[in-house]
Design brief:
Order of helices and strands: HEHEEHEHEHEHHHEHEEEEHHEEEEEEEE
Number of strands: 19
CATH architecture of the largest domain: Alpha-Beta Complex
Strand content: 15-25%
Number of domains: 2
CATH class of the largest domain: Alpha Beta
Structural class: alpha+beta
Distance between the termini: 50 Å
Shape: globular
C-alpha cells in the first residue's frame, strides 16, 4: 500500500544522525509503518524459539528486513508482508547467527546507535548488546512520534469507522439492558457486540464504573465487581472501544438504572457541558493541551464538583489507546490539526451518583470534530 511505503520512506528519512539501525518488533510502531497488524494480546506470554528477533531491521539507506520465527510465519497474520524482505527462522536455526548476518549486511559496527520501539522486549536489547559491543540505544517510538501524532485523512476515516462500530455495539447493548443484570453480563455483551459489528476485539479491557447508594465505587477489582447485581438506583458508566485496521477507539456513556433523581440529572448535564466546552476549545493552531483541559475542567469546578473530576481531560489516541500529547495541566504542546484526542470529563462520587462521557475528537482550526455524537442524553433503564 502506497501509504505504508510513504510512511517507511519518511521514517527512514528521519534516521540520519539519530540511529544507525532500527529494530521494531511486531507491535504498534510496525503496524503503523507496514500494516502488519498485531493481534489482541495474551495474558501469559506465548513464546516461540528465537522470538526475540521477531520484527523489522531498518537502516537509513537500505530496504527493511523482516525476521520472524517459523511459528509466526505459518500461523501468524500475513497482512503487510508484501514488499518486505522476509527471512524465516526455523525452529532449530540459530537466531544469533541470523542477526549477525543482518548486522554485517547492514554495515553495523561496534558503538552503533540502535533505536528500538519503546515496547521492545528486554531480551532483544540484551542480545543486541552482546552482538554490538558499545551499542547505544535510542527510542524509535520517539523518532516515529513526529509522524504518528498527526493523523492523515485515511487514519481519520479509519477512526471514524471504528467509532461507528463502537456506537453500533453500544446501541445493541442498550437494547438488552435490564435491571438485575450483573456487571459481567454487560461487559460480556459489550465485547460480543463489538466483535459482531466488525472489531477485532476491545482496544483495552472493557470497564464499567458503577456508583450509587448501594453500589460502592470499586476500581480495578473485576473479580469482585463482575458478579454484582445492578439494582436501581445506580449510575452505570461505560468505558470501551473497538479495534479496526490497527487503530483504537475509546468511548464512554452513562446509563441510569432506575428513574434518575435530580443529582443524576445534574452531574450528567455538567459532564456534557464540560465536554462541549472542551470540544469547542480544541482549535488547531490557537491553543495548548493544558488550556483545553482548563476550559473543560472549569465547567465542573465552577459547579462545585472540581474534586470529583479526578483525571486529565483526555489523551492522544490512534494506533495506541493512550498516546501523547495529553489534555492535562503541564502539557504545553500546541494543538495541531489532525491530532486526535479523547475528551472525557467525569464526576465520580462514591456512595452517590456519577457520570462520564467520552468521544474521540479531531482537532480542527474552528474547534474539535467529534467522531461519535450519539447518545447525548442520559440513558435510562427502568
Amino acid at each position: 500500500m502506497a501509504t505504508y511505503q510513504d510512511r517507511m520512506t519518511r521514517f527512514r528519512g528521519l534516521l540520519p544522525g539519530k540511529a544507525d539501525l532500527v529494530f521494531i518488533p511486531l507491535g504498534t510502531d510496525l503496524d503503523y509503518l507496514t500494516g502488519i497488524h498485531r493481534d489482541i494480546p495474551n495474558y501469559g506470554r506465548n513464546l516461540h524459539p528465537g522470538m526475540w528477533l521477531e520484527g523489522a531491521w531498518i537502516a537509513p539507506d537500505r530496504d527493511p528486513i523482516l525476521t520472524i520465527p517459523r511459528m509466526t510465519a505459518e500461523f501468524g497474520a500475513k497482512d503487510g508482508f508484501d514488499g518486505l524482505d522476509v527471512r524465516v527462522l526455523g525452529d532449530w536455526d540459530d537466531p544469533v547467527q541470523m542477526v549477525q548476518g543482518i548486522l554485517k549486511e547492514l554495515g553495523i559496527r561496534e558503538g552503533a546507535t540502535i533505536a528500538t520501539s519503546d515496547d521492545a522486549e528486554a531480551e532483544s536489547l540484551m542480545e543486541l548488546q552482546k552482538l554490538v559491543p558499545g551499542a547505544r540505544f535510542a527510542s524509535a517510538t520517539h523518532i516515529l512520534r513526529a509522524l504518528r501524532v498527526i493523523k492523515d485523512a485515511d487514519e481519520i476515516a479509519t477512526m471514524r469507522e471504528a467509532g461507528r462500530i463502537t456506537e453500533a455495539a453500544f446501541a445493541d447493548v442498550v437494547s438488552k439492558l435490564k435491571i438485575g443484570m450483573t456487571e459481567l453480563d454487560i461487559v460480556a455483551e459489550v465485547d460480543f457486540q463489538m466483535k459482531r459489528h466488525g472489531s477485532l476485539g476491545p482496544s483495552f479491557t472493557t470497564s464499567l464504573y458503577n456508583t450509587g447508594p448501594n453500589h460502592p465505587m470499586r476500581f480495578g477489582r473485576r473479580l469482585e465487581t463482575w458478579p454484582r447485581v445492578l439494582t436501581a438506583p445506580v449510575s452505570v458508566l461505560f468505558d470501551f472501544g473497538a479495534v479496526l485496521d490497527g487503530m483504537c477507539y475509546d468511548f464512554g456513556r452513562t446509563v441510569s438504572f432506575g428513574a434518575p433523581n435530580d443529582e443524576q440529572v445534574k452531574v450528567h448535564r455538567l459532564i456534557m457541558d464540560s465536554q462541549r466546552a472542551g470540544i469547542a476549545a480544541l482549535k488547531a493552531g490557537a491553543i495548548t493541551c493544558q488550556e483545553v483541559d482548563k476550559i473543560a475542567r472549569d465547567v465542573i469546578a465552577d459547579a462545585g464538583y472540581g474534586d470529583k473530576f479526578r483525571h486529565r481531560l483526555g489523551h492522544g489516541i490512534g494506533w495506541d489507546v493512550h498516546e501523547p500529547p495529553f489534555l492535562t495541566n503541564g502539557d504545553e504542546t500546541p494543538v495541531e490539526e489532525g491530532m486526535i484526542f479523547t475528551i472525557e470529563p467525569s464526576i465520580f462520587q462514591d456512595g452517590n451518583f456519577s457520570a462520564r462521557v467520552e468521544d474521540c475528537v479531531v482537532a480542527r482550526p474552528g474547534g474539535g470534530e467529534a467522531l461519535t455524537t450519539g447518545w447525548q442524553d442520559l440513558v435510562v433503564v427502568e
